[in-house]
Amino acid sequence: MSTALKHKLFEPTILWPALGQAFAKLAPQKLMRNPVIFVTEVVAALVTLMFLRDLVIAGGKPLFSGQIAAWLWFTVLFANFAEAVAEGRGKAQADSLRRTKSQLTARKLMSADGIDVTTIPATDLKVGDMVLVEAGELIPGDGEVVEGIASVNESAITGESAPVIRESGGDRSAVTGGTQVLSDWIRMRITAAPGSSFVDRMIALIEGAERQKTPNEIALSILLSGLTLVFLIAVTTLWGLAGYSGTVLSVTVLAALLVTLIPTTIGGLLSAIGIAGMDRLVRFNVIATSGRAVEAAGDVDTLLLDKTGTITFGNRMATEFLPVPGIRAEELAEAAMLASLGDETPEGRSIVALATGEYGAATPAKQPDAIVSFTAETRLSGVDLGTRRLRKGAVDSMLKFTGLDEARVPAAFRQAVEQVARTGGTPLAVAEGNKLLGVIHLKDVVKPGIKERFAALRAMGIRTVMVTGDNPVTAAAIASEAGVDDYLAEATPEQKLGYIRKEQEGGRLIAMCGDGTNDAPALAQADVGVAMQSGTQAAREAANMVDLDSSPTKLIEIVEIGKQLLMTRGSLTTFSIANDVAKYFAIIPALFVATYPALDNLNVMRLASPESAILSAVIFNALIIIALIPLALKGVAYRPVGAAALLRRNLLVYGLGGLILPFAGIKLVDIAVSALHLV
Amino acid sequence: MSLIGWLQIGLLFLVTFLLIKPLGLFMAKVFSNERTFLSPVLGPVERGFYALAGVDPKKEQGWLAYAFSMIAFSIAGLVALYAIQRLQAYLPYNPQGFAGVAPDLAFNTAASFVTNTNWQSYGGETTMSHFTQMAGLTVQNFVSAASGIAMALALTRAFIRSNATTVGNFWVDLTRSTLYVLLPIAIVIAIAFVAMGLPQTLDGSVTATTLEGANQTIALGPVASQEAIKQLGTNGGGFFNVNAAHPFENPTALSNYLNILAMLMVTAALAYTFGQMVGDRRQGWAFVATIAILLIAGVGVIYWAETQGNPILTALGLDNALGNMEGKEVRFGQAMTAAYAAVTTGISDGGVNAMHGSLTGLGGLIPMFLMQLGEVLPGGVGSGLYGMIVFAILAVFVAGLMVGRTPEFLGKKIEGREMKYAMLAVLILPLSILGFSALSAMLPFAVSSISMSGPHGLSEILYAYTSTTANNGSAFGGLTANTPWYNTTLGIAMLLGRFGYVVPVLAIAGSLVGKTKTTASAGTFPTHTPLFVGLLVGIILILGGLQYFPALALGPIVEHFAMLAGQTF
């Protein structure tokens, strides 16, 4: 699905329905949610009446009022269109989800342990029902495996085609409706009523049907409504103030002034920005349960990251061979490689890879006489090659194997072991017979590039905290190598919860990800909790986002998406407000130049005539919405630099740009308007 | 413009600048209830007041109780001042034997002084008895200023405290502002004024024999003491009708300097106090810088416009060497008149040393525009600070999102509730200024009060409602405002401008004080940088001033261009 999600910005399949939607959204009861655009619609209706009046009365200017009315309607339609396009992009995804979900049937077990089944439509399932699902069948609803083990293809939701194992008990018991059992069978208990299952929620969220305004959106709407009121006061009182000097302002020109001054640009694009933000998350295969969580992600101060899988690859790997004096590194590497042939663990394989790769050791020509496989009890592995008995393994096991007492262990070996342990690594000993050859340095390898990533986060003011079950020494070593700001060693779920609470008391917002049931309290406590799709139902319920890829690094992207959403909103607000200056210079002289010719000095753009000036400002105001739809949907480019640098850049582009651009824009429209003799 | 003129202006701002830090630190101590060098003397007095009033200074109030105390106190002041004016004929210290003040004028004056506006529809020396001036007007000069400081303190505490419910105790803030800040400085300045030749007497007038042998009655009174607090508390209500242009209120260039300094120092230093109290002095300096940029620009434009003079008069053969001197005092000159006009309107002082109505179109535009910006440059004592904080909140909200975080100011998240109250406060000003102006411009009996035809007449109306709503109190001159219509509506405008604004501001304080104070990080919107100062200037101009542009275009702006074109009305 992840590839199917990547729609182009403007696809015909989205554009055409969006055009229709733009008209459907003209219904006032729908537009009420957006005060700025609602006012624009009321004003457009009013000017339309003026146009009709101008048509019948003598001396009216139907050409002028007609065009103003048309462009005011366009302004509303463009705003509706922006929202419809954003919604349309989500709908396409929702439709593909819905297809997988439709016509699901369930084989309901009549009793918990019984074998009698009746086939019913999945929509008739109730919470608590027991269902049997066998190989080849689709899982009818969200639930928990109570018996059995099966491989499940969850690609319908995650886009990942590799099957996952679902079994009763433990952290892998949650199954999702719409996914397919590939082998074996499971008995499951339904935990979500039809209509409120994971896929249902996902569809609703993507479609924006459940979309509630987020706190910041509400606050911004208040600001925009307030500004609209301020300009409503300024424009209506202008009628009286102008009357003093004998100027009679028509409803049409006052309407034009009002609509150009109120923040229609951001008002028209606000909901599109919000929907696009959720959409961007979905593109990253993350489902947020609310827009609130996306916003909170932008505010996160501290990231709690699991070491394994996020910061390190998750397996310890051999990085170095430390021979005792008298042994060459190559000899040690060869011995270690041979001894690891019987070790199929990732650690063993990494030793072979290191020895053959960097140390040029060759695999043996002839079959070894005996292979001693690695087991958890012996904690060593090795081979017998003729008379050579090569072994490698945990230091204490190897000392036992060689039969060396403390005194006869070479000092150099002891030093090497200590050196490895001190840096947080794991030392393995290599021996041939009763002779110690040297030490293999196993360590948790930090992912390449992660340090730079954390540095970037730090520049954004985000602290990273590594959470690990390792002992403090190992944790400290990895923490300093990865460049995290803090770490939590030997972490228990309670400790995580405590850490989150402590940070929150200091007024910081925390994001974390987790998958196990024991993570649930911490996920719920965190301001942004991301659960892995592979995790338990409890974790998924507690979190406010679910990562369908189950990738712990996702948290960083989520924060960036949150920030991008807020930045886009702020940039377009600033742009919209800064635009007003130019519009004043277009309209004010046009309104009063007949009474006070001296005011033509304010006509700095040298617009052709008062009427073309007013019309140009209105046209520019409508077109700018269309022009900014791609930006609203794609979001403002985000760079991980500090707030001060971001502010400087965005203020320059959107503040200063918003101040200057309309002067040029209105002038250009004016040239076109007068060239086409529109007024 | 001349170099000497600019040096005078520069010196004035330099001295103010040097006063900001020491005064700001002192006030921060006073308002944090710490001991100061005045405590040994004033401490017992302060405690005496609390005991007398039955106030427990340790008991703090939530924002509602705080607002209620302030409003109750203001209503009491309003009623008392109204009564004193109406009954002044029966009260002592009435050497000229003035009759009681008319009801509409008494209401207007009471509203005016309680709201720290000091709009004067009356001529002081011909209307008010000494008792009214001293026990009525001067008392309100102190306490209305102290109330303003108290409101600013409540809002300041909202940024200091985390997860709290109370914003301070109004009665304590009121008492300490008056006792430790306004009173001592006022005494010092009053003595300086007396030394500069301002009268300070309980006599009503002296009679002089002129050269022609005629008898002239020259009004006198306790001028110096009222002048001191008039400026210090950014009140602006003069003892005499022509305010600080009167030689007894403002006899010399030096007294003029002290006048401007007195009105600037406390309110400018309060910006620093804010920074000190919230633990970020740079924030205080950022406010000071914002104020300085806009205020000095204002002084510059007036100075330039006035020295350019009027080309119409030059064409008629008048010497334009001094520029436009109509309505100005030669002893102050162009530079100090420009400085006075910009400062008195940038601050909600409202005292005048020249007739603003006689300024050129552009010169008259600036005082009006500075008031319309909401009186934050640096505004009235306290009121300027809370107005500036509201603008900072708006600036942070508009642009703060651009750094990718929900907006916060000094560690407090700015959300829907704060936005609602901030917009409510911001709405009051255009509603009152433009609403009443448009109404007056349409009503024939209101228009008949205008003295000039053409756009200047509209400016007279606009200026009056701007001045009163912004609680400035300065007059453009020309408008006959002592009519029932203007007395009543201007009075309402003053009450709206003060209480309609401050109650939402206190609600913001109540909302913010309950929030957790977040710690700043590299990802936090920095609010003390030059960039933020630039942003704040832009927001003040765009959100504070843009809505008045159409109205101004019909008044002073067109007047300016018409003058250049040689057009008269």
From TrEMBL, chain A:
Gene3D superfamilies: Calcium-transporting ATPase, cytoplasmic domain N, Calcium-transporting ATPase, cytoplasmic transduction domain A, HAD superfamily/HAD-like. Signal peptide: none annotated. It comes from the Bacteria. It is a multi-pass membrane protein. The active site is at 306 (4-aspartylphosphate intermediate). PROSITE patterns: ATPASE_E1_E2 (PS00154), COF_2 (PS01229). Residues 113-207 form the P-type ATPase A domain. Keywords: ATP-binding, Cell membrane, Ion transport, Magnesium, Membrane, Metal-binding, Nucleotide-binding, Phosphoprotein, Potassium, Potassium transport, Translocase, Transmembrane, Transmembrane helix, Transport. The chain crosses the membrane at residues 35-52, 64-82, 218-242, 248-273, 581-599, 614-633, 653-676. Pfam families: E1-E2_ATPase (PF00122), Hydrolase (PF00702). Mg(2+) binds at residues 515, 519. It is an enzyme of class 7 (translocase). It catalyses: K(+)(out) + ATP + H2O = K(+)(in) + ADP + phosphate + H(+). Its main location: membrane. It is found in: Cell membrane; Membrane. ATP binds at residues 343, 347, 374-381, 392. Belongs to the cation transport ATPase (P-type) (TC 3.A.3) family. Type IA subfamily. Part of the high-affinity ATP-driven potassium transport (or Kdp) system, which catalyzes the hydrolysis of ATP coupled with the electrogenic transport of potassium into the cytoplasm. This subunit is responsible for energy coupling to the transport system and for the release of the potassium ions to the cytoplasm. This is Potassium-transporting ATPase ATP-binding subunit.
TrEMBL record, chain B:
Keywords: Cell membrane, Ion transport, Membrane, Potassium, Potassium transport, Transmembrane, Transmembrane helix, Transport. It holds the Pfam family KdpA. It is found in: Cell membrane. It comes from the Bacteria. The chain crosses the membrane at residues 6-28, 63-84, 142-160, 180-198, 257-274, 286-305, 385-403, 424-447, 490-510, 531-549. It is a multi-pass membrane protein. InterPro entries: KdpA (IPR004623). Part of the high-affinity ATP-driven potassium transport (or Kdp) system, which catalyzes the hydrolysis of ATP coupled with the electrogenic transport of potassium into the cytoplasm. This subunit binds the extracellular potassium ions and delivers the ions to the membrane domain of KdpB through an intramembrane tunnel. The system is composed of three essential subunits: KdpA, KdpB and KdpC. Belongs to the KdpA family. This is Potassium-transporting ATPase potassium-binding subunit. It comes from Mesorhizobium retamae. The gene is kdpA.
